[in-house]
Amino acid sequence: MKKCIGAFVLFIVIFFPFQSFAENESLNNFIYIVVNDQLVSFHDTYPVVKNGITYVPISALSEYLKVHTKWDQRNNCVFIRKGNKEIILDLSLKALFTDKGQILTDCIFLENNHTMAPYKFIANYFGYEVSYIDEGPIARARNAALSVGDDELFFMLQNKIIKEKERILGEIKKKQEEARMKKRLLKKQGKIVYITFDDGPSIYTEKILNILNQYNAKATFFMLSDRIRIYKSVVRKLINEGHSVGLHGVSHNVRKIYRSPNTVVSEMNICNTSLQKVAGIKTNLIRVPYGSVPYMTSSYRKAVKRAGYKMWDWNVDSRDSLRKNISPNVIINNVKKQVKRHRVPVILLHERSTTVKALPQILKYLQKNGYKPVPINKSQDPINFWNRRY
Length: 390
Ligand SMILES: [Zn+2]
Prior knowledge:
Blueprint: H1 2-15, E1 32-35, E2 38-39, E3 48-50, E4 53-57, H2 58-65, E5 68-72, E6 77-82, E7 85-90, E8 95-98, E9 103-104, E10 109-111, E11 114-118, H3 119-125, E12 129-133, E13 138-142, H4 150-189, E14 191-200, H5 205-214, E15 219-223, H6 225-230, H7 232-240, E16 244-247, H8 254-257, H9 261-279, E17 285-286, H10 298-306, E18 310-311, E19 316-317, H11 328-339, E20 346-350, H12 353-368, E21 371-373
Parallel strand pairs: 1-13, 14-15, 14-20, 14-21, 15-16, 17-18, 19-20
Antiparallel strand pairs: 1-2, 3-4, 4-11, 5-6, 6-7, 7-8, 8-9, 10-11, 12-13
Helix pairs in contact: 5-12, 9-10, 11-12
The structure holds zinc ion.
């Protein structure tokens, strides 16, 4: 009799809170992850079941599994360690390697810039048993003596699960709404392109401004502190004409600026002070010399973020500063080739005479292909080398 009541209660409880699963496509393949007795909370990116395998965003799970993860940007790998055991997730090869020599292929992918990896294999490897519970559904990893068995787990966690589900649905709804707004805005604005000029201002800025003006194009200038102070009037002019300004530091010297996270911040602060003295404004936009890879490791990135700066890289490299005698045609072709590959191209140019020669053709090409060159706005999310969405 007791069993029957249990089954009845189970029926009601399950039926009610999970009814809307089917209503929302996004939660169709969702699975709740529990480590021992603890429900894992995921933000932004969620576990997913594909072909019967549960994949989880590994960064969110690591603290629950008590493993240490490290992202190696240069090799595009994530290292997962616990004691003397190690797993390497290779994003380029989409494969997983263990220190025992096991290799799993086609099991790693990126979602919202999070590395997704097979949950059961990783949990097993670090000493957890994994069981699947239909209610929820839940995938539970355990390595300890537990207060409840698998059959009671859902009842113990159901309030948390309901709350978690509401939170996730809210997050998804918000994201969908944001995506719709963005799409609408993009449609209205046409195809956006960001043209950026580094290392100025210079004797060429005035010419660049005139050419931009002819094509009704706006750009962003990442400028050096001493140059801002030398070319005061042109800085004011470009701001008045609706272009955007960003900081490029003081020294432009790898050994100096990258000495520590603090030196990057202080070079940008000094540059910002110059901008304020000359033009009466400050900015939060920065581009670090030579781009953020390889020098801007995690502690550097955190430091500039904490200081309120938004660091921008590029995804279209004109290579105009590679050699002194590079021909304008090479620059134009470099840009044309790469612009097509990105949803939101960010073009890197420098204030040089050859670039000035190449600029009209670049702008003509962009105009012909429906691009609208707009200035980078202070509140936008930056586009960086590691940010693959663009
Ligand atoms: Zn530079």
